[in-house]
Amino acid sequence: MASEEPKAKKPKLSEEEKPESPTKKTPAKLSPNSLFGMGNPLLDICAVVDKDFLDKYTLKPNDQILAEDKHKPLFEELVKKSKVEYHAGGATQNSIKIAQWMIQEPHRVGTFFGCIGKDKFGEILKQKAEAAHIDAHYYEQDAEPTGTCAACITGDNRSLIANLAAANCYKKEKHLDLEENWELVEKAKVYYIAGFFLTVSVESILKVAKHASENNKLFCLNLSAPFICQFFKDNLMQVIPYVDVLFGNETEAAAFAKEQDFETEDTKEIAQKAQALPKVNTKRKRVIVLTQGKDETIMALSDTVKTFPVLKIDPKDIVDTNGAGDAFVGGFLSELVQEKPLEQCVKAAHYAANVIIRRAGCTFPEKPDFK
């Protein structure tokens, strides 16, 4: 959750199957602000703590929870008493950050919108976003503090506590609708929003999704968590008709299928049924991409289902799987925004996830080693 918030191609495709991409072999030339993300920005605060610290705040060594009132002092105490590392986090921001890392040059290919507080943590978050070379434009308000996610590390365990705070306060009319911000939206050709943002501002998502659809650009959404499919079903189903690429994992897919009365628990069938749901922009066929942990990744497009084996990894090399989903999407987007074939997008997604699960938090080496 430090990474994902709480629960947070070369067999050629036929013309029908393609989400419209050029036939030329050279990738599309990238320019700043080509990839747009909007979501819940969190400042990840990572520190090694002892058992007494966990006990004081009734935390389990390996858990993901939303902060309650009793946890609020924890964040300041962590900063005062421990050696902490800060990272720009939250599901969508992580994926944009990973995509930018995979792309490397030019900088600021990825734009990110979200809400933070006018405080110390907000300033750190801005610095970290800049260090990751993403073009973050935050809506800053002072009613709520910047959202944070504490990663309390004990040995091999990580106890994750998220306080969404300001992330819940995003306002379309105060930020997205402003001319200088909307111009950044218009510059993009690929859009990505994690399902968590459906709990914050569905009207903002719909404005971006409709723009993408009307201009034949790619709009991507993530199911993000079973609770989104269950308790925010109405918001989700308002957005689904605009979705060109839908991401999820097998647990989220099962929850989605149950809520949609698909009457199947087979992940491939779920992908096919989700792919066939009504769609506004008929120029593009919807693509469904479902991950299954160490098992093969499933992709449904038109009337076909393809599977892709994930990269093998020795279990002892796995440090932290929390960022895997965000990293997968980031890798995928890094190729999608360059108009690469879908199979190449999956290959990049698997590579990024494989790198991130070998490290603590959603962090990465200076440069990718991806061909």
TrEMBL record:
PROSITE patterns: PFKB_KINASES_2. GO terms for cellular component: cytosol; nucleus. Pathway: Purine metabolism; AMP biosynthesis via salvage pathway; AMP from adenosine: step 1/1. Residues 56-365 form the Carbohydrate kinase PfkB domain. GO terms for biological process: adenosine salvage; AMP salvage; purine nucleobase metabolic process. Monomer. Binds 3 Mg(2+) ions per subunit. This is Adenosine kinase. The keyword Coiled coil does not apply. Belongs to the carbohydrate kinase PfkB family.
